[in-house]
């Protein structure tokens, strides 16, 4: 069984692990610096498909965290990577924003409203009834259904707002078709991330704050898993699941050290 001191590559979630509402969490800046100084391969993962890695890098920098854009892996990039492997040079009708359209363009996809190979649904702040209707009709005409991530809601300054999973559910109800979801908890997102940094599951760890996405996907991808308690999970949440992470720690500040740190007891 893998031990933490055998880990050579790291994947980490962003919200609830490194940042909380645009403020860095304790130890996040130091851990990122430690990885950079040591030349340790790492990627910061997010299911959010709205922003490009460049946008997210700038937002993290404004929070005081230095994460180069090539160290960021989004559900939009994972979706584009998957579709490129399935149908190079394919076509897609997209409901989403610049993070998704840019990723698909760079993967060689053509955006079209006429006979697309795929309907791809991602995060957007401006879901249009017209676009949703078009997606439903294209799927019924034979397009394949893809969603970047399953999250039903996302955060906003005013509270929760409907996200990709909610819109995909509306389209599913109208078509009777379920999407193939690429983002977490699909372990494919982790596999594509590992491919990007040349990592192997037996010496890669995943740090997350959610049992239902980060930890289960990490386990299914064969990774060493660490749950931090700075996000949405608490003791009661952890005990509900039939699986457990390899380690539970209070926060990423516990990883800022060359010495192994004992797991916090739960």
UniProtKB/TrEMBL annotation:
**InterPro entries per the record?**
HAD-like_sf, HAD-SF_hydro_IIA, HAD_sf
Pfam families tied to this protein: Hydrolase_6 (PF13344), Hydrolase_like (PF13242)
Q: Which UniProt keywords apply?
A: Hydrolase
Offer an example of a GO molecular function term for this protein.
hydrolase activity
Work out whether the entry's keyword set contains Hydrolase: yes
| Domain of life according to the entry | Bacteria
NCBIfam families reported in the protein's UniProt record: HAD-SF-IIA
Q: Which family does it belong to?
A: Belongs to the HAD-like hydrolase superfamily.
Q: What is this protein called?
A: HAD family hydrolase
Q: Which organism is it from?
A: Cryobacterium glucosi
The organism's lineage is: Bacteria, Bacillati, Actinomycetota, Actinomycetes, Micrococcales
